[in-house]
Design a protein that fits this description.
heterodimer; A: alpha+beta; B: alpha/beta; Rossmann fold; six-stranded mixed beta sheet; three-stranded antiparallel beta sheet; 10 strands; about 30% strand; globular
Chain lengths: ~70, ~260
Amino acid sequence: MAGLSQIQTDGILCERVDELTYLMRFDREQHSSAEVIRKIVNTLQVRDIFVEEEPIEEIVKRIYLSGEVG
Amino acid sequence: MPPIIEVKDLAKEFRTFRRREGVLGALENLFVREYVTVRAVDRVSFSIAPGEMIGYIGANGAGKSTTIKVLTGILVPTGGQVTAYGYVPYRDRRRYTRHIGVVFGQRTQLWWDIAVIESFKLLKEIYEIPEQDYQRRMGFFSEILNLKEYLHTPVRKLSLGERMRCDLAASLLHNPPLLFLDEPTIGLDVVAKERIREFLKEVNRTERTTVLLTTHDLSDIEELSQRIIIIDKGHILFDGDLGQMKKRLAKYNQVKFFLKDRS
């Protein structure tokens, strides 16, 4: 997908869900949601957009895998 | 308010012997045993205030069930101190169990072949529950858990969700101040889960019952508890407010977006 590579800079990771759906994950200390959204809508033709906190499952998974907190 | 549960440096070790494989190995097993000590729980400490509803989570084999079994008096700890409702569970087991309710999601404590209502009547006698209290609580449970339709059905004919509702009612019949639940929503569909959660909230609110529950379903925790304790390999990794956990441990935000279909 052209344009995606421009957004994927330091600390921003993009995951393709299907042809038209993407998930962009970013370090919340490094980037603000507003900044990331701005980048996305300025670069791509977006129909719809949602922002979420990291799901609790993901946090817990990280804790289980690393065996430590933080 | 003094804590209702106090756990200090709890440790539990299991000694198992390593089994060798094959016929020769099996023979050797009879004569030479090599023992391995496994520390299921290692210096775990926490305290719980009356009326709290706590989610106790961890991967399989993390030590959750071992903790619950020590707290309910089934297992004797290898080290550390445990008090609950003023008792030492494994030592004062007989007197202590009158004050707790326990549900293990994987198995039922009801009598398999008899009607649910008969199990309840037996429990009424066992716990010496006064008739008036029994009637009042049965009324309450029947109403919010919707038990009426199958009170006369034998337990073996109930669905998992129906059985779980009956098990919960049975565990609370004697109105214990402490309730331990080991995976109460395991294998249930979304509607059944929701009903159980609503019930637990109601009991916690009206009776101030202290609830400690283990689960793998994190939505249980989000729905039910303010506080979560995460255990891993026998150690506590996190103990605190759910909101705090998100604030402290969430590293990422995520943006999901849909592109315009150009075709």
